[in-house]
Design a protein that fits this description.
Layout: E1 2-8, E2 11-17, H1 22-28, H2 36-40, H3 45-62, E3 68-70, E4 76-78, E5 84-90, E6 93-99, E7 104-110, H4 125-132, H5 138-154, H6 161-164, E8 165-167, E9 175-182, E10 187-195, E11 199-205, E12 208-210
Antiparallel strand pairs: 1-2, 2-6, 3-4, 5-6, 7-11, 8-9, 9-10, 10-11, 10-12
């Protein structure tokens, strides 16, 4: 897999394009036997490629073979709890983030202006007014990924994105930072975003700013 590596606040992020077929990906996953039973339960070819790609990337990021499990809320974690992890997929892209100390979240989305049609589901009224001034959907796409990222960090407590999370005003560049208010938790999270012509990527480390 073609892989790009980033680092952020002592975390490691790997982004990959899934070009190989399932057989080739299976060969790349050195500890595939640990996953064989779980893998064989997957019926969808796309899901199989995502499953394999994420675990290949986690092995690469960790520098050793690791085993991914899921908690009761389907949040991934390592069996030995040696690292905090988060996983994301979109179309033929996969990405992971790991950190030795703090919870992490990551979300990658292939870019589409269709996000505007569902924006009222995840933006509150103040955010809708803020982003209505924009000439394109770039910031709305970042906002969606930012809230997805925080859902992966915080959990079900923020399932209602519009009610629990508020994107604070931020400058739009190819990459940068933004802050998100967790209203019910009275905390502000700092996230990093990267956006190009193909995808939007947002990730964060759970270092919180208390209000």
């Amino acid at each position: 897999m073609k892989t790009e590596k980033l680092t952020y606040q002592n975390s490691t992020i790997l982004i990959s394009v899934m070009e190989e077929d399932i057989e080739a990906l299976t060969r790349q996953l050195d500890n595939f036997e640990e996953y064989r039973e779980e893998f064989c339960q997957l019926k969808n070819e796309k899901r199989k490629r995502e499953f394999l790609s994420a675990r290949i990337l986690l092995n690469q990021a960790a520098g050793c073979q690791v085993k991914v499990n899921y908690d009761a809320n389907r949040k991934p974690y390592l069996e030995d709890n040696s690292l905090h992890i988060s996983i994301t997929h979109s179309k033929n892209y996969a990405a992971v983030i790991i950190h030795p100390e703090f919870p992490v979240g990551i979300d990658l989305e292939i870019r589409t202006e269709k996000v505007k049609t569902v924006s009222k589901r995840f933006l509150n009224e103040s955010e809708q007014i803020l982003f209505s001034k924009e000439t394109n959907t770039a910031k709305v796409e970042i906002a969606w990924s930012a809230k997805e990222t925080l859902y992966k960090i915080i959990g079900n407590e923020v399932r209602d994105f519009a009610a629990t999370l508020e994107i604070l005003p931020f400058a739009l560049n190819d990459s940068g930072t933004l802050h998100v208010l967790h209203k019910t938790g009275s905390r502000i999270y700092k996230l990093y975003y990267l956006q190009n012509e193909i995808f939007t990527l947002v990730f964060g480390v759970d270092k919180k700013i208390s209000l």
